[in-house]
Specification:
Order of helices and strands: HHEHEEHEEEEHEE
Radius of gyration: 20 Å
Number of strands: 9
Distance between the termini: 34 Å
Helix content: 40-55%
Structural class: alpha+beta
Strand order of the largest sheet: 2-4-5-9-8
């Protein structure tokens, strides 16, 4: 109980920090625009400032949504609208969204999937789960690193594998990375994987699937998202 309480306190501090950072930037943007006064024409630099504020408001909205939706999913209170999802098209869409970030970070981001591969899933939940996994891969894979996404059919289940050649996850952290209150510590670097990955696990299980991870420190990481096949119903 004492350890759980300590982890909860750390997690609350992490959430407060993650929320405060984009809020501070957005508030600074609004104050700067306010200081311009009425009738001030927006120059290119001013527009860039506003765009940064909007971007950080969206980031804050995403964090809050992940927190609330994780609670709803784990409580079985969030509607899940499952149907047949074209996996190649979904992966392609997520890759397109994240390609600019990969380019900025100097990372290679590739994907492959059979054309006729469909899973039974909620498309929005699956998109968010895959975006979270890929977002973590981009965050921890260094410049020049490679991240790949591939999908296949295995025993009536669709498997989506996200592989990176980043620093990997230590044996100490690996069993806990999906835990809500856990923060990993690789090489003394604290990082908050808990919220996004907890959401991913809750979303995958709500769709009748799951997510697992394979990794060794210094050897890269593989996340595997499993979903029932739309064609044959999938395994229980």
């Amino acid at each position: 109980q004492a350890e759980l309480g300590r982890q909860k306190d750390e997690w609350r501090q992490m959430i407060a920090h993650d929320f405060r950072s984009p809020l501070t930037i957005a508030l600074g943007t609004l104050r700067a625009v306010e200081d311009m006064g009425p009738g001030h024409p927006l120059a290119a630099d001013d527009l860039a400032l506003v765009e940064g504020g909007v971007r950080n408001c969206r980031r804050l909205e995403s964090l809050i949504s992940a927190y609330l939706d994780t609670n709803r999913l784990e409580a079985g209170a969030m509607p899940v609208h499952s149907g047949s999802v074209d996996i190649k098209a979904l992966i392609h869409g997520v890759i397109d969204e994240l390609a600019p970030a990969a380019s900025t970070g100097g990372q290679s981001l590739t994907y492959s999937a059979p054309t006729a591969l469909a899973a039974r899933a909620d498309p929005e939940l699956l998109r968010r789960a895959l975006s979270n996994i890929l977002g973590n891969a981009l965050k921890f894979t260094p410049s020049g690193g490679r991240i790949s996404v591939d999908a296949s059919l295995h025993e009536n289940n669709v498997l989506i594998r996200v592989t990176d050649d980043g620093p990997g996850i230590s044996a100490h952290d690996l069993p806990h990375i999906f835990d809500r209150y856990y923060q990993g510590d690789n090489g003394g670097r604290r990082h908050g994987l808990g919220l996004g990955l907890t959401f991913c696990r809750a979303a995958m299980r709500a769709m009748g699937g799951d997510v697992t991870v394979e990794s060794e420190g210094g050897q890269g990481t593989v996340f595997i998202l499993r979903l029932p096949s739309a064609e044959k119903g999938g395994s229980p």
